[in-house]
Structure formats: C-alpha cells, structure tokens
Amino acid sequence: MAKALGQRRLGAVLEAVILEMLDEARQAYPRIQDPEDSEGLHDFRVALRRLRSTIKEFGDQQGFAIDKALLRQLTALARATNDARDGEVMLAWLDSVAESTGAPERGAIGWWRERLAAQVEQEYASIDASVAGFPLLDTRLREAAGKAARKDKGKDSKKKDKKKGSNKAGKEPRFGDASAQVLARLGECWLEELAAVKGREEEETLHRPRITGKRLRYLLRPWREQGEVFAELEEELKTFQDAFGDLHDDLVRGDVLTTAALLHTEEETLDRLEAALEQASPRATAPRHLRGFMLLHAYHEAQTEQNLKRVQALCRKPRLERLEARLNEAVARMKAPQ
User: 174 φ, ψ to 5°?
Assistant: First the structure.
C-alpha cells in the first residue's frame, strides 16, 4: 500500500512535483508562437512560476537541493516573457473597455491599440531568442531533481542500517513536516501583510500580499486531494489572489495609461507644429483623442477604487481571524500521521 502524501520522503515528492510542472511548461512551450493560442505564453509562465516557487520554498529544507545556477536561469527565463505578457493583458483590457464606453474613449483605444499591438508583436519576436534555452534547462532540471531524490533515498537506506535512535538530527524530513514548516512561515507572513493593507498611499503594501498569496497556493497544490481543509483553504486563497491581482493590474495600468496619453499628445503636437509651417494662419486645437484619454482615465480610476474596496473588505479583522484558523488547521493536518 502506498504511503500517504505527508509520510512520503521529501525528495521523492518534490521530484514528482517538479516533473509535473516541467511537463506543463513543455506542453505550453510550442504554443507560445501560435497566433491562434492566446493562452500559450500565460500557461508557460504559470508553470515556470510554480516551479521556481517550489524550488525556493524547499531550498533550505534538509533532504532536497537544486543548484542555484539553475534557479537563476529559471528566473531569467520567466522575466524575459514579462513585457509580452503585460502587453497582452493590456490589449485584453482595452478590448473589454471598448465594449462599454463611448465614441471618444473608443477613439483613444483605437489609437493606442494600434501601437500597442505592434509593440507586443515585437516582444513576441524577441521571445524566441530568450526562451530558446528552455529545452536544455528542462533537461537539466529533470536530471537535478532525479539526482537529489536518489541521493536522499540512498541516505535513508543507510540510516536503516544504523541503531535505532542514532543520527536523528540528520534524518530527511517527510513531505508533510516540511510542507507544514513552509506553510506556517508563509502563512504568518501573509497575515501580517494583509493586516497592513490600508489605502493606495503605500502601493507596496498592496503588492506584497499578492505575491505571498501565490506562493501559498503553489505550496498547497500537491495537497488538493488530501482533504476538505486544503480544498477550502485553496479556494479562499484564490478569492484573495483574484482581488489583489485585479487591483495590481489597475495600479500598473494607471501609469501605462498616463504614458500613452502623453505619447499621443506629444505625437499630435509635433505633427501640428510641422503642419503649421505650411498654413497661413494656423489654429491651435487639442489633440484628437485627448478627451477620450481623459474619459478613459476616469473610467479606470473608478474601476481601481472599486477593486481597492474589494481588497479592503477581504482584509478586515474577523475574516483574517477565520483565515488564520484555517491555516493553522492545514498545518496541523500536514503534520498529522496519515
């Protein structure tokens, strides 16, 4: 009979988890350049983020180690896809807004979309060189995970030959104990970050919980089928992640929107200055889409405020206390004999 997840060797479970995520990245990899597949790059990036988070979270645990050089390569590969994916997300937002706004906004969107689409196309062209090294990195990570797991299995076999009670300090942890240790650490950090959320004055306080929440979800992924407490906690985490993710997109988009409006104004002004040289009595008029950008900015600000209130509602004390109880229950279940 197979051992319960929590009682299995850390190295063996992590090897399986890493191989699963590498399989997901490998399946998404050829889809990146498929113009008919809008989610190929997203799926590739998610697999890389999960993989990187898993390796980092358990990196200080006795019983498993991946060369830091491989982790740095993985990080660099994920970052190389940032601009293309950010552009895709921006284009999707513009398309959604165009369906519910007036003619001035649609004019500004059309002007902006034409330039942004060309920029995203260029980013995709540059991705080829950046991600070309993935197949080799994939192979090396698979080999590293396998070696680490086999090495730890060998250590366990040697320990069985020793007298009972000897060398307890060097014993490789079970996956349940190691996961509980990481969950307790991340959970405490996350609750502190959530309690610090106030308003938009300090955007960093709105950024940190989103990242830590993702790390927690990645950690819980192997535990999805191990009991109701894990399924419920993961669903709760998704609620927080969705809210913080939407707000984060809003905050980033606000700066990009301002930059686009300034670019439009500059471009129009330069064109009109040049045209004025050929006109007997030039007239000064506002840039064509300035009103559209102003209305688009107002629409965006209203959306941002709505998402901020959504985040603030999630961070109220009673909800955080219930969340803390669920995290503690999950930690206890991970540690419990199964």
Answer: -75, 160
Whole-angstrom Cα distance, residue 122 to residue 84? 8
Instruction: Sort residue 165 into left (φ over 0), alpha (ψ -120 to 50) or beta.
Output: left
Confidence at residue 194, expressed as pLDDT on a 0 to 100 scale: 97
Contacts of residue 24, Cβ cutoff 8 Å, sequence gap at least 6: 43, 46, 47, 50
Going by pLDDT thresholds of 50, 70 and 90, the confidence category of residue 180 is very high
9: phi then psi, degrees, rounded to nearest 5: -60, 140
pTM of the model: 0.86
Q: Letter for the amino acid at 12?
A: A
d(CA 258, CA 297): 8
For 172, half-sphere exposure in the C-beta direction (CA atoms, 13 angstrom radius) is: 27
Q: Are 119 and 89 in contact (CB under 8 A)?
A: no
Return the axis-axis angle of helices 40-57 and 82-98, rounded to nearest 10°.
Answer: 130
Q: Dig out the tokens for 298 from the structure.
A: 């107002």
